[in-house]
Amino acid sequence: MSDQHDPLYNPDAELHDEAEDEEEIEAYCMSCREKTPMENPQPIWTRRGAPGLRGTCAHCGTTVFRMGKTPAHDRLRRPKPIQVAGKEGARGGHKLPTSVTYINYSVQDVEFAEILAEDLNRIGMPTWLATTHADDVQWATGVHPALVECDKMIVVLTPLAARATHVQEALQFFLDHRKPIVVALLEETEIPDTLRRKPRFDFRGDDYKRQFRQMVEALSG
């Protein structure tokens, strides 16, 4: 006898059991300042070919991110990682495209920086993600070629970024060369004097899309 003919069979209970088997996904919400359940998680691949999830906070609706591979990624074809320039850069290697935006961030904000780069690249705005590896930026012998060749900068501003040496050195290079700089405010932070007059976009709230759109307009202007 099939389960459907069993007088104790309850299809609703079966669906309930399947739902219970689904693991709840959590991500850190910048608005709630804590890990919260992610609603409508969507698998994505970043510009570097890293897997991640994007969704909304179940509590406040803020866009949230979480890096890492899930079974949902198995149904997607992994894109070829985008490399806008090699480490050799200005030493005779690859050159960056004509207009590239340098994303300057602290190590704790790498997930947000990766997603921001992926979104910018998706709409046709090439980016260079800063790196914190000591062998990738040799300040004693000169600056990283990407700093020389990039023509715009996004500073992902948090208290840690405001104190990070590599973030401040890259920022100072752009200031010295009078290149356009915009600020993506990710956490409550005292704005440094060097950034007070720069266009600032508040990503602490629940309207990622509007802030992103306005930032793109500023970078394109």
Protein architecture, described:
By secondary structure, the protein is an alpha/beta fold. It folds into two domains: 20-81, no CATH class; 83-221, Toll/interleukin-1 receptor homology (TIR) domain (Rossmann fold, 3-Layer(aba) Sandwich). Helices cover 27% and strands 22% of the residues. It contains six helices and nine strands. A five-stranded parallel beta sheet has the order 6-5-7-8-9, with helices on both faces. The chain has a four-stranded antiparallel beta sheet with strand order 1-2-3-4, with helices on one face. The longest helix has 13 residues, at 110-122. It is globular. The termini are far apart. Residues 6-21, 82-94 and 133-141 have low confidence and may be disordered.
Fraction of residues in helix: 25-40%
Secondary-structure element pattern, one letter each: HEEEEEHEHEHHEEH
- Give the distance, in angstroms, between the N- and C-terminal Cα atoms: 70 Å
CATH superfamily of the largest domain: Toll/interleukin-1 receptor homology (TIR) domain
What topology, given as strand order, has the largest sheet?
A: 6-5-7-8-9
Secondary structure category: alpha/beta
| Main beta sheet | 5 strands, parallel
The total count of strands amounts to 9
The amount of beta strand, in percent, is 15-25%
| Cα radius of gyration in angstroms | 21 Å
CATH topology of the largest domain: Rossmann fold
CATH architecture title of the largest domain: 3-Layer(aba) Sandwich
CATH level-1 class of the largest domain = Alpha Beta
**Envelope shape:** globular
Low-pLDDT segments: 6-21, 82-94, 133-141
Number of helices: 6
Count of individual domains: 2
Residue-averaged pLDDT, rounded?
77
